[in-house]
Fold these 4 entries.
Entry 1:
Amino acid sequence: MSLLPVFDLGLAVLVLAVAGWTIAARELFSSVVGYVAYGLLLAIVWVRLYAPDVALTEAAIGSGVTGVLLVTSGARLRRAGEGEAVAPGLSQRALAASLAVLVAAALAAVVLLLPEPPPTLAPEARERLAATGLGNPVTAVLIAYRSFDTMLEKVVLLLAVVGVWSVAPDRFWGGAPAPLGRARPQGALLFLDQALVPLGILVGIHIFWVGADEPGGAFQGGAILAAMWMIVMIARLTGPPRIGARWLRLALIAGPAVFPAAGIAGLGMAGNFFAYPAGFAKPIILFIEAFMVLTIAVTLPMLVAGPPRGSPEP
Amino acid sequence: MSIALDLFSLVAIGLGAFFFFAGTVGLLRFPDSLTRLHALTKADNLGLGLVVLGLLPRVESLLDALRLIAIWALIQVSGASTAQLIGRALSRRGAAE
Amino acid sequence: MSAATLAGLVGAALVGLGLYGLIVNPQPLRKILAFNLIGSGVFLIFGIVARRGASAGFPFDPVPQAMVITGIVVAFAASALGVALILRLHEETGAITLDLDASTRPPGEGARDT
């Protein structure tokens, strides 16, 4: 007798219920809290799907950092003042509901009619895994087999930061974003920082390092480091840096710069763009990942901090 | 011996689940936010401790056991601090009303 | 029904829920939330494709999982850009919906200087 299907069913119902609460809640803050809880439940679903790397990423970035982003921006909107918003009428709701049901039904049909036997790239992934020297196939896909995708994704992150900064008025360019936390942090927050941040930095580096052979990796570790910097900023122990600061800009481009450099070096070392020389692959992969972690740890908090709000000092 | 350990795990995790359930009942039934916060922090911390205790016989190495205990300690620290912050915000809002 | 199929159906339902929330909620921040919901539903469907691709000794197919990880990070970046645009729109016009005809500013408040 197995209880697992019952657990799966209960989990599915819970996920849908919390997602429904997120849509139906009256206040933005309740909705965001619901979304964070939904993200954590989703992480458990990912574990049930044998995807621990995705579960870590969903918990850290999908629900954690996105939750911080929405809460801080919701607070900024509230502080700036609110007016009335026009809610749609019943007929519009009915139309939207029928569209939603249609799309959901189409996707459900796709899910139920997926081809049997399922196509898969796992055998190819298994073949070359030994050559990369890694134990975690997802990391191998990210940095070895599909490294081009990951490199372009780093560029997307950089573009997002540039986009967020460009939204500011011209006279603020080069200044610092608005502080993340309240003016006078409470003792409990300072205590949390002192207790959590040193440990969190260790855990972040550990998860990045271990990601070569076990679930983990650059994104997950970088997200934890980013979270540590964010709670330090929220406690007002340090402010968001000026966007014109040289160290900040170097850190932001470290990932997207080292990656293609390693790819071009592959031309010389192993005969092909983005090829890693046999036997030397793992150190190169970890080298690239280290710079990726640095960039992610700096990019995520800058995306949450937002556009610059103060004039740069002369 | 292993049957005794399994039984111990079962009992501890079952008790932990019961405490989580009790905390949720408190969340739903207590009259105002501060009492609900109290129910959540006390019951959930104890529940988590019992669950971790129940999982300890099932780990494969000492390092994993230490990791479980470290996770429990971290959750206690962050849970306690968060509860303090929420309580302060609640009392500030209550004083303003 | 296996865990994978159940998760896929949940993903489809989440896309529907998110689509409804995206259309119906007037506040832009709630729309971004609903958009994230749609995204996570799509990722779940990717995830079951990965789970069903179990073979060659792996309990999953690693390629779709790597794509989902990439997707989660990019979805966050897009949300951050959207939030920055919303906050700037609010600063400029005081609007908290995207509806151009709705009068949303309380009387007496002027738009901020550029």
Note: Chains B and C do not touch (no CB pair under 8 Å).
Entry 2:
Amino acid sequence: MVYLTRKAEFSASHYYDNPDFTPEENLRIFGKCNNPNGHGHNYTLEVTVKGEVDPRSGFVVDLKQLKEVMHREVLDAMDHRFLNKEVPEFLTQIPTTENLAVAVWQRLETKLQKAKLHRVRVYETPDLFVDFYGEA
Amino acid sequence: MKAHLTRRYHFSASHRLDSPEMSPEENRATYGKCNNPHGHGHNYTVEITVSGPVDPSTGMVCNLVDLDGFVEREVLSRYDLQNLNTLQEFAQLVPTTENLSVEIFEILQRGFQKAHLERVRLEETMMNSFEYTGENEPRK
């Protein structure tokens, strides 16, 4: 088994707010991230797939195909977007880095050919990242 | 949905590697430049990974305010701009980055209850780092 990781970057804005909480609770729990006008990050996405090396091509996965899937399923939907208003998952969920990693996993999992998704890592900043391994 | 959250923090400290169980010659041979009696310093980066279910009401594994507050209070304020050899935990223990990563893991394991501690990874320089996932019995 060999693991292959591809990186991509996207920039987006978001804010954190749970409509079931009072405004005071939202501000207490989410702090500055509760500002309804939103704020932005340069996200770095790392997608790791695993598989056997094809003896004919020497590839675990066709990188071009992985890049296309990442662009089509994730970057086209999220790059330069306001996540809360423009990405369907976040009309009902809070666009935290945790939920973003889960959403990216769900968008990619069924679209990959041959290689199996191993890990989705989303960096919100260089000092904060979330890993999701598809665990329930 | 179980996710792993990692946060990186930075601190600077000095240390000297010298074991009381070794002769001066052995210490010099073992630790080289790190045995310089006056000590030397590093800019450390500590990476703390916690895990748990993503709370549907907040979208979080744990609130970063809680993690940041705990790490600031219990780890960074303890080690930042200190000489590690003067601290109680290193009175008998050589302050290698291996031992420091175990100490930081145990501080979090004892006191941080808001998420499951997975791993502490400590970078001493950009070229070396140490990881501890808590497989040993906690120190007394």
Note: Chain A has a mean pLDDT of 96.
Entry 3:
Amino acid sequence: MPRKIFHPALIFILLQVTWFGFLSLWIVWFIQNKLRIEALGRQVGLRDVGSGWFILIGGSFLMLMILLGITFLFVFQTREARFNRLQRDFISSITHELKSPLASIQLYLETISLRDPPAEDRREFIDLMLRDTERLSSLIDNMLVASRIRYGKVTLDLKPVDLYQFIRDFMAQSAAHHGWDPGAVTLGERKGLTVMVDEKYMEVVLNNIVDNAVKYSNGNFRLRVSISPAGRNVQVRFTDQGMGIHHKELKKLFKVFYRSPQTRSLGVQGSGLGLFVVSHVARVLGGKVAAESEGLGKGATFILTLPQARTQEKRET
Amino acid sequence: MNRLYRILLVEDEVSLARGLTYNLEAEGYRIIPASDGLAAMEAVEAGGFDLVVLDLILPHVDGYKILLRIRELYPRLPVLILTAKLEEGDRIHGLELGADDYMTKPFHLKELLLRIQGMIRRMTWYDGRSPAEEYRFGPNRVNFKTLKAAGVDGERTLTAKEAALLETLIEHEGDVLSREQLLTEVWGYPGDLVTRTVDAFIARLRSYFEPDPKNPVFILSQRGLGYRFVRPPGEERSDEEEVKQ
């Protein structure tokens, strides 16, 4: 309770109200007494005391400027504070995200050195370690891309790519690297739709979308991917059967460092970078990304829209 | 080991859980795995284990809640927190809620195995103690066999670590023991890695046994040196140590 009373925004508003009240009192007092001051002036022998209006208007204007300035500073400072808090959360979650795979790699290396396990076990441990290095490397990719986006330093190496083939190859590779069942993803065949993309960035985008679908799947990872033309664009829909998204969160998800309260309370770890990276890379490639969900527990669909490559004059139907 | 000890392993990272299971089984422990908070809660309710290795960040139910439930049901059970959370506040919070030890990821395998071994040894050592000794100081009574204690806030059961710390202080009555000494004697590892651990345990003991934990009369701090146990004036050592049936 006492913390709420001393909330900075409340103090700020109270101060402004008080201050504005005094300003109004001053104006009222001035208007009420103007005639008397003029009369007094005439008695003393002054001919022109009309400049009082100038003082009133000038004074009020000055006060308003101060009010605007203070408001601006307050808003700026509040935003800064919120961003700092997000960044602090980000650092603590990113350390967790980095430490977990690292802990696992260290554990397996020490196991191998301590126990000299049989070849079969060693093979399994090496696969698990490779999966962990893959996780580390995707996370570092995200951090790099996010920082390039923030500083506007994204340079693209654009190539025409058949989207269906690209996604098919990506899924096969990702299943092998991250150890999920390749049968969990169904990709509707739709050849002949070409987009201009930077393959590296496109992989980062797909990686994040698939990683989220796995992470928020409640252990039941299923992803349906469909590609379709949409006017001059190509649309890819990624539909999962995971924990879904609250309608209030649908837009916030793409903000940097944002993590929804549901994922936090469920204890699902993440850096808050993935979807920020996805939406910005999509934008840099001339497209966009959006999220749809019927609500919590009802799965989610991510829709990636990219412009079709110009060279593709003939379209198959 | 003449008996198979069962460890409840609460860890949601699949690859870490696999590696830990492999190693603990190689040491001769039986593993009961729990890969999220709900599974862990079910396992805790079902019981039948001798030690818990607990991650704090878990899906569905967080580790602190699980720890609280463990303490409600099994006051003496040794609990080792194994987590990537590395802020001092998390450590203290975990220890305050009744964990016996705390390790952060990434960790050294041998150190983890040694700590688990030490915790099990402590526990069996208390199990194996012969007659029920009751130790009294001021208004407090502690039985180091059953770990039952009656203090200023009523009856409770101490964890093995709490009992070990209290006993070590009592054994060295009047002498100042440094945090490092206590870590070595009670937790079994040297160095000043986690000296705040000792402080958290001392705070716990004071809240059990001191009439006013802010102005302790039994477990005193020696600024810059460590802690020391004293009896209230007028209590003789030999008279108080009664051996009850």
Note: Chain A touches chain B through 27 residues (CB under 8 Å).
Entry 4:
Amino acid sequence: MRPAISLTNVSKVFDIVREKQISLKAAVLSFRRPQPQKLVALQKLDLVVNHGEALAVIGRNGSGKSTLLGVIGRIYKPTTGKVEVDGRIATLLDPGAGFHPDLTGRENIFFNGAIMGLTTAQVRNCIDDVIEFAELNNFIDAPVKTYSSGMLLRLGFSIAVQTNPDILLIDEALAVGDAAFQEKCYERIDSFKRMGKTIVFVTHDLEAARSVASRVIWLDKGKVCADGEPETVIAAYLAGILDQEHTAREKQGFHVARDNENSAE
Amino acid sequence: MARIMVDQLRELIAYKDLLKQLVVRDLKVRYKNSVLGFFWSLLNPLVRVATITIVIKYVMRLDIPNYSAYLLAAYLPWVFFQTALLDSSQVIIHHRDLLRKVYFPREVLPLSAVVSNLVHFILALLVFFAYLIIYIHLILNGSGLLITTLLLPVLIGMQCLLIVGLTYIVSCLNVFYEDTKYILSVLLDVFFYLTPIMYPAELVYSRIANLHLPEVYRMLLYKLYLLNPMNVIADAYRKALLPPAQFSLRGIPIKSLPLDYGMLAIAAVICVMVAIGGYAFFNSRKWVFPERV
């Protein structure tokens, strides 16, 4: 069987666009020191994710986590290497990106479904599940601008999971709603795994990584530092992060480089 | 090359429901909070047309019976051209949050700006037809619509191809250079006057005819002028929808020319080329958008 996601020798190099994305601080600093032109976000990465796996990606800011997700989700074309994906991808969108405030919850569900490549008929088939899961029965025909942030998150999560994708990509957004809803989300993700579906999520929340993931990878400077059982990798990461802190501080130009990385993310 | 484009087109077709959703969303948002909705979007062109009519007829003294009808026939397509281009120049930037989070064929976005403006244009044309039938045909001479009205779908199709090609170029350039939208609005302003909208193309022809040049060159010069497909299209809309105008400039009558089907065919070829070229240009750069917006 084909793996759900397979990356072979994948690198991603960003050109840093100065004039647009530069901050004033970085501009002043770069006056003294010429800036790097290229940013290597992923370096010759090999990764195979099988169907039914829940993979957590951890690592420091700027380690390439979001870029990895972007490469899997076809947002970025890798500079070198090959990405193969088996199945339909859904991305958990932040409410700011996916919803139009003037449209109702229902209209936004159709819009989001279409963005993820569903036809209107397919959305119509699952819309009741989406509304039900998001617990928005009474508000679904109200404009989204009247929703609380919790309601938006619930709706976003519900669209991503209830439209029945094969692969779910989540970037830093698992903390959804109150404890009860969060419990529901974890359950849903568990049933996802049992159904042989694949989840890749980027997180700083190591607790979430422990409880949801069946496998964790630790990315650092665009490379996989550790890959395996959640407990082992998280322990290695925590040990490594202290170590890195020291060396990074000593390195000149660290802050400049990091600012660039953040803006490129 | 052609294979890649076919694959891209196929993917675009797979996402046709997204296009529909984008268009519906655009139309809904635009009219959601206004009672008169669509009629607000008609008000602006109508006021423009009334103003231009007064200036041209009474100040410039270009005399055409029913001038406002001749003006509208070319001005409504121009508004379509202009607003679609202006809207689409911003469309990638407006959706930057989405672009950076989720994959979908990026070509859908400029296309949606064109299609939602096409919907407006067609609605405006319907109103124009109502005006045409009631005012011009019933009251003035009682004749029905011209047979050449059947050319309308061809003209709209040509214009759409031209606009789609240009919007792909403009919306893509605007990601890399934000000056694009300013340059575009200046260019649109200039071309509004250069395109035969306020005046008939025959006026340009009569000007060229007065030049001291051999006949061949004069004809060539006029054909050159008609190489701009928007010039041909604006002129063709007028000639397809309305009977030949009996007009005169400061009392001197000017001969009206028939619709030049040869030039129309050339314009159609240019429109197709612009569409293909714009699409290829956009697709060659679309992968960089999430990094740049």
Note: The first strand of chain B starts at residue 62 and ends at 63.
